[in-house]
Amino acid sequence: MTERQESGRPSFFLDLINRMSGDDVTGLAAQLAYFFLLSLFPLLLFLVSILPYLSLSPQDILNLVRSYAPQESMQVIERNLNQVMQGNGSVLSFGILATLWSGSNGINTMVRAFNRAYKVVENRHFLVARAMSMILTIAMIFVFVVALLLPVFGRQIGLFFTSNFGLSDEFLHIWNALRWVVSSLVLFFVLTMLYWIAPNKKINCLSVMPGALAATVGWCLVSLGFSFYVEKFGSYTSTYGSLGGIIVLMIWFYLSGFIIIIGGEINAIKSERKKPNC
């Protein structure tokens, strides 16, 4: 028997499965999905309002969302984005406030999930916790804008090198593939910051990278897999009618929230296993 078995400690994956039930991961993921949905359309409203300052078009926003979101839900997003564009610029402040409020509620849900994972109690003052959630929400919006700009300017940079340095079209294909890598790195950075700052516990930044890496890879695989399933086998429209797109969007948000919380659980398990056994 190994030292780990002699100590009565379960295997890593069995421990993770037990925590999923004990920490109510599925319930917290459902809460995250709800706040993600509340945040999405105010965020689109805010992005549409600042498009003239970024030299971008609404299609650039849709292309970024389309890279990850299931195709069936894109109809709902495009329809709502078109309705938003028919409004006026005075809704910018509403978009900012609604995004900050709903987004910070989502961050608060993550904080509760990570605190449960580390078995710590949230004793920070309400205003401090809310301010931290607001700051993290602003940071995530900023990263989202950067992720929006990267494909656009990345394409322009690739065309510049291709046309001015006589590079082949193969370079452009490779460059486009690298832009996907950059998007994944941006996601990894965001998750690392969340896992490091959100819990009410002093954590080494490097110690949260395994969970951030697992969540990044898991989220990309789950998003692509779910999109493929909906496109090839799903029949949500025939089952739910006009609500099919919303149902698909909610399931995708639920899976995303589930993966994010699992990443926090992975970090908590690794942190606990570094402690000497009593």
Automatic annotation (TrEMBL):
Transmembrane segments: 32-56, 134-157, 177-198, 210-230, 242-264
One Gene Ontology cellular component annotation held by this UniProt entry: plasma membrane
Keywords, ordered alphabetically: Cell membrane, Membrane, Transmembrane, Transmembrane helix
Topology of the protein relative to the lipid bilayer: Multi-pass membrane protein
KW Transmembrane helix (keyword) present: yes
InterPro entries for the chain: Virul_fac_BrkB
Protein name, UniProt field: YihY/virulence factor BrkB family protein
Organism: Peribacillus glennii
Superkingdom, natural source: Bacteria
The keyword Plastid is annotated on this UniProt entry: no
Compartments reported by the entry: Cell membrane
UniProt-listed Pfam families: Virul_fac_BrkB
